[in-house]
Design goal:
With 418 residues, the protein is of the alpha+beta class. It has helices spanning 3-20, 31-34, 57-69, 76-85, 144-168, 173-179, 192-206, 214-222, 227-243, 304-307, 319-324, 329-341, 366-372, 399-417; strands at residues 23-30, 42-45, 89-92, 111-117, 123-126, 171-172, 252-258, 261-266, 274-277, 282-285, 299-300, 343-346, 361-364, 377-383, 389-396. The protein is 40% helix and 18% strand. A hairpin with a 2-residue loop joins strand 7 (252-258) and strand 8.
């Protein structure tokens, strides 16, 4: 079998994983108990690996805040010294089958959604979405109020959600997506329908939980129209965990930004990152006084949803997001068609009525991106350099990442054949 045949066979296997996976939310557990390679002194951050000296302010704040939350340090200053000395270690979330949206980080004591792919066996993890309050670790902010919310999530919320999910026997993520087809979610930056459908499945089991904070947790979930995102991120991480074990594949299997660099991963080379300068998210700002000079480059792992065909890939499914961020219906259609041109397959579980009932394109082939010169577009929220959310919008994925990835997989194949 020659190299081209090996690549074709590998890509067919990855596409089988991508299109036949069945992610099911099964539990909520402390990260230390379930996340691969997790240690008490390890904090996982979004995007590709980065040295402590290069951390942008929001990530530095989030990491130090998480260290204080876990009792690794008495205060932020001590936490930072421990990070610089290596006493507190940091690493990229996606190297551990996890995703962290925006400036969110994951420490050992934080609860994580456990979502298992029942078809191929991979498992992914993500911390719960913290809610609509803008003062959260997820946007690089830490203080007594943020710590109070983190403690609530680690305690009451995790206990109630964990028991409810176990009572349910597991919540099928594909079923939620199928129910909400044609309801306007693109399922990266917009998912009110999916969050509502998830709550409808979860709340009956929450009502059977005997816990003093049960009603508060129900209210928190019912009021959070972005709750589904972090369940979906864990689900995608479980799927791509299997894809990253397929040698020779040229299908993109991870991507994210740390505010300074943006990177992608490819199934055939596992957790190897191909990076370049993080692009800027163009769209709207939450405040009219914000300018581009105030904003970091792409920050967060939530774009792993787009690795699996959501977000910018499925832009036509959520044209309202385009309207909100300065685009049009035609822009939404164009984004999905661009994704379709460089993808190897299509999901069939959530056809879009206003797109001739087509499904979402899935499985970006890095060779197609470079060969055709067509860049997929990612949706995302933008972060302020000083912490906090700047706005929301979209950006083209950097071509340099794809060129480096093509070169990387080429030499991987040549090295194995030598």
């Amino acid at each position: 079998m020659n190299a081209a045949e090996k690549v074709a066979q590998a890509n067919a296997r990855v596409m089988e994983i991508f299109t036949k996976a069945r992610p099911v939310w099964t539990d909520v557990r402390p990260a230390l108990e379930v996340v691969p390679g997790m240690k008490k002194n390890l904090i996982l951050h979004p995007g590709p690996p980065i040295s402590p000296e290069k951390l942008p302010i929001p990530l530095r704040t989030a990491i130090c805040g998480a260290a204080c939350h876990d009792g690794l340090a008495k205060n932020m200053e001590e936490a930072w010294e421990m990070v610089l000395s290596g006493e507190i270690e940091i690493d990229a979330s996606q190297n551990h089958d996890c995703g962290n949206a925006a400036s969110q980080v994951m420490s050992a004591s934080m609860p994580v959604f456990v979502v298992k792919d029942m078809t191929f066996g991979g498992t992914g993890y993500c911390v719960p979405h913290p809610g609509s309050n803008p003062r959260v670790l997820r946007w690089g902010i830490y203080g007594p109020d943020v710590e109070e919310n983190l403690s609530f999530i680690r305690g009451d919320l995790a206990e109630v959600l964990g028991e409810a999910v176990r009572k349910s026997g597991g919540i099928d993520v594909i079923r939620v997506l199928s129910k909400t087809a044609g309801m306007g979610d693109e399922n990266h930056n917009r998912q009110p329908a999916a969050s509502m459908a998830l709550a409808l499945e979860l709340v009956p089991h929450m009502l059977d939980v005997d816990h003093p904070a049960r009603d508060r947790v129900i209210k928190e979930i019912a009021a959070n129209d972005r709750f589904f995102l972090h369940v979906m991120m864990a689900g995608v991480e479980g799927i791509i965990a299997s894809a990253k074990k397929v040698p020779y594949s040229t299908v993109m299997a991870g991507m994210g930004g740390n505010g300074i660099e943006f990177g992608i991963q490819v199934a055939g080379t596992g957790n190897r990152w191909y990076t370049t300068e993080a692009p800027m998210i163009e769209g709207i700002f939450l405040k009219p006084t914000t300018t581009k000079d105030d904003v970091l480059g792409y920050l967060g792992d939530s774009c792993v949803t787009e690795v699996w065909g959501l977000g910018g890939m499925s832009a036509i499914a959520g044209p309202a997001y385009l309207r909100m961020t300065g685009g049009t219906f035609e822009d939404a259609k164009e984004r999905t068609e661009k994704a379709r041109a460089v993808s190897l397959g299509e999901h069939t579980f959530a056809p879009v009525p206003w797109d001739d009932f087509k499904g979402f394109p899935v499985g970006v082939d890095i060779r197609k991106v470079v060969g055709l010169g067509i860049l997929p577009i990612s949706h995302g929220g933008s972060a302020l350099k000083t912490g906090g959310q700047a706005g929301a919008g979209a950006c083209e994925l950097p071509m340099e990442c794809f060129k480096k990835a093509v070169e990387g997989i080429y030499y991987e194949i040549k090295g194995e054949e030598a």
